[in-house]
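Input/output pair, single chain:
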Amino acid sequence: MAVKNRSLSILIVTGFLCLGTAYGQKLTFNGSPHKVIEIAPEASTGLAAVYVVDNLQACTVSYTSSSGNVTWQRYSNLGGGFAEPVTGVNRTGNTFTIHADGNDVGYIIDDGTRRHCFWTVNYSNHNLRLESLSVSEDDSECDRTVLAPAGQGDAITYYSINGRAVELSRDIEVEYRTLAYDEDAQVWRESQASVTFPSLRQHLSVDAPLCNTDFTLRGDRFLAEWGQEQQVVSGYYNTIAVNAQTVVEQVEHTADNESRPSGDGELGGSAPAEITFRAFPTDAAVFREWQFSPSSEFEDITERFNQDEITRVFTDEGTVYARYVCADASGKCVYEGSVYPITIGASKLECPNAFSPANQDGINDEWKVSYTSIISFECNIFNRWGIKMATLNNPSQGWDGKYKGKFVPSGVYFYVIKAKGADGKAYDLSGDINIINSRISNSAGTSGEE
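Output:
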């Protein structure tokens, strides 16, 4: 025989079992002017259902049994172990009815084969009243805004069969405007924020809005279902909270003869390193600046730029740290962004002594230095008669082995280099360049006058 899985809550209480919603037993209410709201309780409570009735005192409560034999017990916050028999039960067929007394109370019903447990809430004992809403300036902080509501809306509590208190959320909602960052468009956009509270408290704390706004307090879930939801709106609030998003982009070096120092960070590398820093602050940010420091703790800030976007070229060996800082007009709320380390490596300059330009096989067709962090560079190349073949003004440039648009003959040529590194090192280099595998013979074209 196949066995079907089904959810079943069973709680043992002083010699009897309470069965949960798996069996579908319910209470019915007569005399309530509005719909009775049925809530599924936590499974661990042992309750089949929790009912919220707008005015329970005016109601009768009924249970229909298939066995025709029903007894009622009533229990309080002490739990089912202290349940007492209910008297005055009226029977019509297999329906058993009692008069509610207007209290929040639990019922244990024994229908002869099983026991089922319920909790009933008289909403008129917990009426919500929203009178006004204001911002509590004294308690608000930069990242939290504290609201002070006036009115009443106490916590609604139901009790498990073991007497454990469980709060039944009223879903009282605070709604307001704030800003959300659109990463694709790199802009802050206005958005709606909402926070739900289980009951009306003396202070309601929400994430601080990032734009000026008012706050709407509405509730609760039960009044909303009965078409009687209440709401109040605060006065206009000028935000003090600040936030920012930052983007840092470095111009990529594409020279194939430039090497990046090993072990350096994502920014920097080989000088000169051109980096653009962009910040996108929120509305309340009045004071704004990019800061640069040799210390990651920014103990000594050496440069400040009062702009949201700047471009800097880093030419000195070592590490510099950058961050964006903004604050509101009073200086109370300060945002400090991510710290970006920019590391420039030590310089290096090495020169090859041979290449083969004329065969154009894609291998060693151009004479280039290998370098790192060279910030000034001049290289002159001569033939053996002292005629200048080429001048290179950037270490990324190379000589293609041509003079006046034509390949020079195979043989020995000479370079003279004057350069400076990001670490201050001066380079005065000279040496031989051997051109091999040229299809051109030596001729007077490069041995005499230009």
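The helical segments are 221-225. The longest strand covers residues 172-182.
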